[in-house]
């Protein structure tokens, strides 16, 4: 058994002014839609009035929340994708209109010949997972960023993902999942199992062990580094030889330093990573010397405080440095 990961061709969503007769976007999901086996996981907490839209358009939909209370509309939903239903068109249309949903969330697409009701019952137990200490954790796999992050972190351990694909009549219950690419929501990434595992092998249940938790941390760090790198690239236009690397170099170095010398002391690790990476860029060749200093490695001081002290020191030094002659 192995997991395959492949990107689809870029998807061009419908424009909000497109006529009702305009064809749906051409993408790798077209055969899925044609077979009427296509489904989508949607987040009721991100898409306002989602259940009202599904009911108004007569879409078959199932709650994965598993609890009958007032929070159900804001939980995860599995909806059937019917190409003839107006909701499918709304899902693939982008505009400022609140009923056009493309780009407002990161849905997870899937298909299964077994039907939506069986798929929903299969996925419900994974909404709330237990960790090694017995605590219940919400696993937001219906968010494409979460699903793809976990899938990418476990590519070498397909048995970790097999539980989400399930099994039905000697084949995967869900043959494939598609999620928006981490780089652009208009490109999808397809995840498929090449074959079922050994039937005698135990199937993992809705429990996260220590390896799972580490995989989540790796996935979260990867996504955070992408955001930090993007911030750096936009904030500083010139990453030349004088600065010793590209934005990703500074982002990765800052995060590794924070993870090693500031465990459990950061209330906002992403903001700390941005601040430290920006300072590293501004310090240029001197940044590694500064990070090796005793102050920055003093773990008794919270990492956020150390970064703030370094920033103040840099600004003070900058303010007291004489300007070159002839500079106004």
Automatic annotation (TrEMBL):
Protein name (database record): DUF4123 domain-containing protein
Residue ranges occupied by any DUF4123 domain in the UniProt entry: 40-153
Lineage, highest ranks first: Bacteria, Pseudomonadati, Pseudomonadota, Alphaproteobacteria, Rhodobacterales
Pfam families, A to Z: DUF4123
Domain of life assignment: Bacteria
């Amino acid at each position: 058994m192995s997991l395959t990961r492949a990107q689809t061709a870029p998807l061009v969503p419908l424009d909000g002014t497109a006529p009702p007769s305009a064809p749906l976007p051409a993408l790798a999901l077209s055969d899925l839609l044609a077979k009427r086996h296509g489904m989508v996981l949607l987040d009721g907490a991100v898409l306002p009035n989602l259940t009202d839209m599904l009911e108004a358009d007569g879409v078959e939909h199932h709650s994965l929340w598993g609890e009958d209370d007032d929070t159900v509309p804001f939980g995860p939903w599995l909806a059937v994708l019917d190409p003839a239903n107006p909701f499918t068109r709304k899902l693939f249309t982008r505009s400022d209109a609140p009923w056009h949903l493309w780009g407002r969330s990161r849905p997870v697409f899937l298909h299964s010949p077994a039907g939506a009701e069986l798929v929903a019952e299969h996925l419900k137990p994974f909404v709330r997972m237990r960790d090694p200490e017995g605590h219940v954790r919400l696993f937001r796999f219906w968010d494409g960023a979460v699903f793809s992050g976990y899938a990418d972190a476990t590519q070498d351990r397909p048995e970790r993902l097999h539980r989400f694909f399930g099994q039905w009549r000697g084949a995967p219950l869900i043959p494939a999942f598609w999620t928006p690419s981490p780089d652009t929501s208009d490109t999808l990434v397809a995840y498929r199992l090449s074959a079922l595992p050994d039937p005698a092998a135990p199937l993992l249940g809705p429990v996260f062990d220590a390896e799972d938790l580490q995989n989540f941390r790796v996935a979260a760090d990867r996504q955070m580094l992408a955001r930090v790198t993007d911030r750096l690239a936009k904030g500083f236009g010139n990453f030349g030889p004088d600065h010793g690397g590209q934005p990703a170099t500074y982002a990765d170095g800052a995060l590794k330093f924070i993870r090693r010398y500031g465990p459990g002391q950061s209330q906002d690790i992403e903001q700390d990573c941005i601040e430290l990476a920006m300072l590293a860029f501004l310090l240029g060749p001197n940044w590694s010397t500064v990070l090796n200093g005793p102050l920055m490695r003093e773990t008794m001081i919270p990492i956020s405080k150390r970064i703030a002290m370094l920033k103040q020191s840099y600004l003070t030094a900058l303010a007291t440095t004489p300007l070159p002659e002839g500079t106004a």
